[in-house]
Amino acid sequence: TKIDEVLFDISNNLNIDKKERELVDKIEDKLPDSIVTDMATYAIKAGSDVIRATLITDKEMDLIGAKDIAKMDDDQTLAKDVDQYYIDLKKIMKKIPVPDDIKLDVKVYDNVHFLYIFTRSNGSIRVNSAMLERFDDDEMLFLMAHEIAHIINKDYKESYRKAHSMYALENTLNMTGDNTIGSSANGLLESVTSRMRKARFQKDEEFEADDFAMKVLKMNGVGKKAAVDCLEKLQYLNAPLLMMHPTGYERVKNIKDNY
Q1: What is the residue-wise DSSP string for 76-108?
Q2: How many Å apart are CA 233 and CA 112, to the nearest integer?
Q3: pLDDT, tens digit (0-9, with 9 covering 90-100), for 37-47
Q4: Rg of the chain's alpha carbons, rounded to an integer?
Q5: DSSP class of residue 38?
Q6: Of 71, 62, 51, which Cα lies nearest the Cα of 168?
């Protein structure tokens, strides 16, 4: 099997943005015409990574999420139910409509130095107290509604599949041991896969989550300024939260233009 056939069989099944797909397509021109190494082994491994990610069930994803959150809870200091941070967040959460089949577990980490919200597919959401320090109630309402939308839309399953597919792409190239591949195509591939792994969600998923959040704001009589101010503040502060939620400027423009 030629490496380009394996590579593009995988990449063609990825749900990636047009710009990113164009970058992946450029790899084809960098690859040699044929590979004489044991590509069957690498193809099987790459294919199995994609299959494992594609076939993962919602229950399995929830178990992974529960395990992640349990470890984080052990490593962090949880705010108590009587702490003001927790009380303030619970008031915000009551303003967000959640389907009956979605069970949320929302808690606050006593961490005033790190701007982050941890969300998992099983409905677990952890908010660092730094977020509640820096953002007002309306801005937090937008943020929390956005996070809940990702849970409702099951975006975390797609994110998991995408991440494993990216590793499969890297394995297809990097495990050949061919110096030509390493020097000509690997740099481009690394830049694409690294950016896509850091950006957990696709642009359309972000816009859909924002759409839900904007509806929540409207339900509560809050204007779009809260959403715009929130996103612009995250960008200004270079908050780690935006590393997992990309296209900040595009999201701001979308909100300004369409809501």
Answers
A1: SPBPPTTSHHHHHHHHHHTTS---TT---EEEE
A2: 16
A3: 444 444 445 55
A4: 21
A5: -
A6: 51
Residue found by looking up tokens 């409702």 in the block: 152
Structure tokens at 200: 């957990």
Report pLDDT digits (tens) over 1-32: 444 455 445 545 554 455 545 554 554 455 44
Say how far residue 259 (Cα) sits from the centre of its chain: 24
Cα distance between the two ends of the chain: 50
Nearest to 121 by CA among 79, 149, 92: 149
Kindly give, in sequence order, each residue whose CB lies less than 8 Å from that of residue 230, ignoring residues fewer than 6 positions away. Answer: 135, 139, 142, 143
The DSSP bridge pattern shows strands 105-109 and 117-119 to be unpaired
The Cα angle at residue 221 between residues 220 and 224, in degrees rounded to 5: 105
pTM for the full predicted model: 0.70
Place of tokens 């797909």: 21
Higher pLDDT among residues 154 and 137, named by residue = 137
